[in-house]
Amino acid sequence: MSPQEIVEAFIAAWNRGDAPAAFGMMAEDVVWHNIPMEPAVGIAGCQALMAGFPPIEGTEWIVHHIAANGNVVLTERTDKFLIGGRWRAIRVSGTFEINAEGKIAHWRDYFDMLEFQREFA
Amino acid sequence: MSPQEIVEAFIAAWNRGDAPAAFGMMAEDVVWHNIPMEPAVGIAGCQALMAGFPPIEGTEWIVHHIAANGNVVLTERTDKFLIGGRWRAIRVSGTFEINAEGKIAHWRDYFDMLEFQREFA
Known about the structure:
2 copies of one chain form a homodimer.
Chain A (H helix, E strand, L loop, with lengths): L2 H13 L3 H6 L1 E9 L5 E2 H10 L6 E12 L2 E12 L2 E13 L5 E7 L2 H8 L1
Parallel strand pairs in A: 1-6
Antiparallel strand pairs in A: 1-2, 3-4, 4-5, 5-6
């Protein structure tokens, strides 16, 4: 798979609620940085960060635009989460860096923290 | 110029302080949307938005990653502004859409509003 296809498969895994498949696409030493927050390091660190979110009943990440340059893939998205029976939407732009093994080594998402807090409240 | 080259030239214009050149690369009906704020519409609207910022003494936008897909160009940047003798830095991810005339028709920047307010204070 190309770097872009890897990112598309990663987002598709989240969208079908398959967290094990999504985490399995990460490098062991992955760094997941939601830019307004502290980065999570390693798959276990990412799982711990995810576990701190409210229970997610559904996921729909809409990719508006995606483009690759070498091993780097940039995305413009709206990430929707079903929580407590209500859909929440965050406008996000995020970068993925794919390593030589085809795993996600870096993931950086840019968004407005106030929008995140308002939507997840 | 390719869409990516147009965006690189646009950023280079800002970085040399040449606002007229930068505005000249925009479509008349450009939409500039700093996602946490209301969008600015038209070149005059963008100029008015820019005029509302504190006086900028220097600009250095660092492009960490850039990738194009057709007429859409995605960027991951750190935008630095010299204001009141002190450099301020905003971490940004932004999308540019280039129209058939080679002008910037849409520009959307994603960043954390709290970081923006803290840096520009």
